[in-house]
Amino acid sequence: MEYKCGYIAILGKPNAGKSTLVNCLVGEKVAIVSSKPQTTRNNILGIITKENYQLILVDTPGIHKSKNALDKFMMKNVRSAIGGANVILYLIDVTKKITDDEIEYIKNLKEKNQVPLVVCLSKIDLVKNENILLTISQLSSVKEIDDIVPISSYKNKNTTELLNTILNYLPPQKDKNFVFDDDYYTDKSLNFLVAEIIREKTLYYLEQEIPHGINVNIVNFEEKPNICIIEADIVCERDSHKSIIIGKNGSMLKTIGEKARLDIEKLVDKKVLLKLFVKTKKNWRDSENYLKEFGYKKEDL
């Protein structure tokens, strides 16, 4: 039997559907999802292991211009993923128009990295077939693209074809030199996943500008036989944001906590007692000290 193993860097603009695709392919909730840009901040691995192959999907932050130290950290994560990739998978939201700048970016990806480049057209369930064919026709003239695969993560359509396309670009090996054990589906800790679930709920329930200035820190995680006791700080940048996160008589914080608790219980497979607190740390996204405190390594800023 021959084996295949490789890192797949998943790139694209904010809201192209990268995290949704990773969750779909892995079959577990590896990365949080929202309709707001810059939801993903860290590179998150989603690991698919079968008898004869292991694919390590690297979910990256959406490509954007840096405005602060956190943004620079996110873009460095993207460059790191590209540098270690065996295949680059670039997602394009087929419901939006492709710009000349994006096509130039795709061309540069191939020229600079010289690894197979697969373009994935996401969200095909939201457009007519003629729109998909038009986009494929537009991209077919870009010689740097090795393959184009239209998919719908929401409908789980063409995802098997996408996996087979990726596998075609990985060289076979005689030995089973997989990077992760068979039971791993992500590289992230339980604390990280819990914090991300809480942040996902702030993205969903809060006003557009507030969630980007939010970080979640797990202060205490105590796992008992029948229950997990978790305390977490929701950190924001302004006192005015703090009052909105808490809400009238604590209503918003209660909603965020209740919705997060349900998802965390699915993750840990037991009851959860979740206690949330809100703190203000002004301009933390531009403070190397705060970013380091929140787990963003100084050398990555």
- CATH H-level homologous superfamily name of the largest domain: P-loop containing nucleotide triphosphate hydrolases
Report the average pLDDT across residues.
Answer: 88
Return Rg in Å.
Answer: 20 Å
Question: According to CATH, what is the topology of the largest domain?
Answer: Rossmann fold
Discrete helix count: 9
User: What structural category characterises the helix and strand content?
Assistant: alpha/beta
What does this structure look like?
The protein has 301 residues and is α/β, with parallel strands linked by helices. It folds into two domains: 4-168, Rossmann fold; 190-300, K homology (KH) domain (GMP Synthetase, Chain A, domain 3). Helix content is 36%, strand content 23%. It has nine helices and nine strands. It has helices spanning 18-26, 69-83, 100-113, 129-140, 159-168, 190-205, 239-246, 251-268, 288-293, and strands at residues 4-12, 44-49, 53-59, 87-93, 117-122, 147-150, 215-223, 227-236, 271-280. The strands form two sheets. The chain has a six-stranded mixed beta sheet with strand order 2-3-1-4-5-6, with helices on both faces. It has a three-stranded mixed beta sheet with strand order 7-8-9. Helix 3 (100-113) links the parallel strand 4 and strand 5. The chain is globular, with a radius of gyration of 20 Å. The termini are far apart.
